[in-house]
What does this fold into?
Amino acid sequence: MLNETDLSRADLNLLVLFETVLEEGHVGRAAARLNLSASAVSHGLGRLRQLLNDPLFLRTPKGVVPTARGTELAAPISDILARVRTVVSTAAPFDPKKTTRRFTIGAPDGISAVVLSPLLKTLRQAAPGIDISVRQILPTPARVWQTAMADLEARAMDIAIMPIDDIPARFTHRVIYEEDFVIAMRAGHPFRKNPTLDRYCTMEHLVVSLSGDPHGFVDQFLAKRGRSRRIALTVPNFMFALSLVAETDLISALPRTLVAMHGARLGVVSVEAPLPLDRSRVRAIAPTVALMDQGLAWLFEVLGGTRPVTRKRAARRREP
It folds into this structure.
């Protein structure tokens, strides 16, 4: 990236500046994050442009976007900084009992509602000073989980928890639990007594859809068999769906573990689906290079050992 002569005038802070501008997409926001003036950031970018012989960022009405060369440099610069941070951190080894770090975890709410409770219980005992920020992520038809992967590499979040199997080699992953779907409804709903496929197709359905698209994975199965259903309502997250199912005659295909953990207190019950629904492995995912950070590696291992505790499982644990 730099020739031997250039290295004598290279400044590591310029790489930090590059990373921050790339993440923020805006010189002003990057300056605020770095506690610098906008002119200082612009001056630093000028030095880096001369050093790397490329504009690196182009101005837009909403901020800046990387050039092709800037995009190409993002991964190697991230790698360099991760290694430097690892070297620096060895002077003070990570101590979960003493740390006061904050980590950002991205997950669909149907997963975070399952994983957070046991995770926070572990942190209270092992690392009481750690704080967690949660970002909600849901797939879109066009991008599936690609946006979340890009956010991981851009350090917009530290770890993602997603139901995905096709993971690029540059990421490390651990299976946390396996998930499938059940048909959820309010207690006393007539569908529970006779949950056949014919009756299923006559019900009014609720679908979780970030974009509002009423066509879900269930509809693909039904279409292959010449059947259809009425999507009476779409909502953007699973916990909202669970609360609405509790108060209406709508039924919904929801994650089994989510319903098992939170359904009873809302008066929601479930039955096995009268059609085959997908089963998935829910994984914790992080860029391999980022795991050179001892603190992040520790949290990743904790997440990898997290197991959701449903009411039934908790009851079995209390049995003599």
Q: What stands out?
A: The first helix runs from residue 4 to 7.
